[in-house]
Amino acid sequence: MFIGISVVAVILLVAVCGLVYVGCARDNTPAPASVANRPSGKILTVVYSESKTKSTLTVAKWIQGYVGGDLAEIQPVTPYPESYAKVILVAKKELDSQTWPEIQPLPFDASEYDVIFVGTPVWFGTAAPPLRRFLADAKLAGKTVVPFCTHGGGGAGRTFAAVKIACPESTVLPGLALRGPNIIQRKMGRGSEVLSSAAHVAEWLESLKW
Predict the structure, then answer these.
(1) Same-domain pairing of 148 and 115
(2) What's the CATH number where 101 sits?
(3) Region of poorest pLDDT, from 14-23, 48-57, 109-118, 147-156
(4) Residue 19 scores a pLDDT above 50
(5) Between these two residues, 45 and 22, which has the higher pLDDT value?
(6) Predicted pLDDT of residue 182
(7) What ranges make up the beta strands (E) of the chain?
């Protein structure tokens, strides 16, 4: 009887440890102390993430996990349609006409920060209109701006160039582009580290010259 109870206890312990391990395996947010190359001063990460999978927001959280600081998600005053196909139609009109949607106030004032990471999905080969609105309104002169983006397979396109144009008085560092579907895999603890992952964010941060 004692042996039976002990076996059951061991099985339960293994099961619990297995659940803890799985949970850790699926948590791909890096520890704050996991990179040596960090910027000095106050850090803010600003991100626009449209898709339901929030892959761009996932990258923003990876960045914040490494360098710390505050994080703010851009929200349009008028939400885009539920259908992604309709979202793209609206975004195409905005990009063609160079009219950016109004966005809700962020909880942080970017002008009070020294380093601002800015993230966006790539739409039609460039930065999404809501991030364009943030860049147009924010006072980023003299700041260090660090862009990152997620894409469906076509790369960054003109995204980083658009950030540079929008921030003529800022120091814009080399950006990071990660493939969205691969980010979703890593967020779920699937796929390979050779795909888009938090490790790629670490490599990128270590390569930057602040």
Answers:
(1) yes
(2) 3.40.50.360
(3) 14-23
(4) no
(5) 45
(6) 61
(7) 43-47, 70-73, 115-123, 126-127, 144-151, 171-172, 176-179
Helix (H, G, I), strand (E, B) or coil at 129: helix
Task: Say whether both 14 and 63 belong to one domain.
Answer: no
Residues in the chain: 210
- Same domain? For 18 and 111 the reply is no
The model's pTM? 0.80
Domain that residue 44 falls in: 31-207
- What DSSP letter does each residue of 42-82 carry, written as one string? -EEEEE---STT-HHHHHHHHHHHHH-SEEEE--BSSPPPS
Same domain, 14 and 108: no
Kindly report the backbone phi and psi dihedral angles of residue 134, in degrees, each rounded to the nearest multiple of 5, phi listed first. Answer: -60, -45
**In a shared domain, residues 75 and 17:** no
Query: What span, in angstroms and rounded, lies between the C-alpha atoms of 165 and 198?
Result: 28
| Same domain as 61, residue 11 | no
Residues 121/123/127/130 CA torsion (nearest 10 deg)? -80
